[in-house]
């Protein structure tokens, strides 16, 4: 798929890809400084994950559309929505745990969500370092997923938000999404 990166030689968590469908949500517990900050903020929610993206398929390969700070080497130094192979997304230097969740809706709805994710990718929407849900010209990972699902008429967060100190607006944590009762865990990643 144009703009989607394949992994290098590092190892990755493995998932049973036969269980995946377009529009599924993939979460990982990352190894970066920003991942650790999310983990600290999420401590009271017992969240196992710090980052989220949307699964898309090209031919027989799986990719993840997501936006994340500090991984701009694949995008020419720009912090924009990006598309990585599943192996690159779960590469050992980026992920220590991962899981795929599916929202209980028609496969056609999830496919539409994946198509919308591809459109955001093509637009090269910048990463939102201010974490402002009121401004969708820039997006952060959970905000992107929430926006994609809202466009399909699904409220993944059911209004859940958190107000971290020193942030101008409430933000969406990964747990605000995973607490949705209509999300089912499909598969976990293993080393």
Tell me what you see in this structure:
The model has no long low-confidence stretch (mean pLDDT 86). The protein is globular, with a radius of gyration of 15 Å. The chain has one domain (20-188): endopeptidase domain like (from Nostoc punctiforme) (endopeptidase fold (from Nostoc punctiforme)), CATH 3.90.1720.10. By secondary structure, the chain is α+β, with helices and mostly antiparallel strands. Helix 3 (107-123) crosses helix 4 (141-151). The protein has a seven-stranded mixed sheet. The protein has helices at residues 33-41, 86-89, 107-123, 141-151, 174-178; strands spanning 4-5, 25-30, 51-58, 61-66, 82-85, 95-103, 183-188. The protein contains five helices and seven strands; from the N terminus they run E-E-H-E-E-E-H-E-H-H-H-E.
Question: Which helices and strands appear, and what pairs or packs with what?
Answer:
Layout: E1 4-5, E2 25-30, H1 33-41, E3 51-58, E4 61-66, E5 82-85, H2 86-89, E6 95-103, H3 107-123, H4 141-151, H5 174-178, E7 183-188
Parallel strand pairs: 1-5
Antiparallel strand pairs: 2-3, 2-6, 3-4, 4-5, 6-7
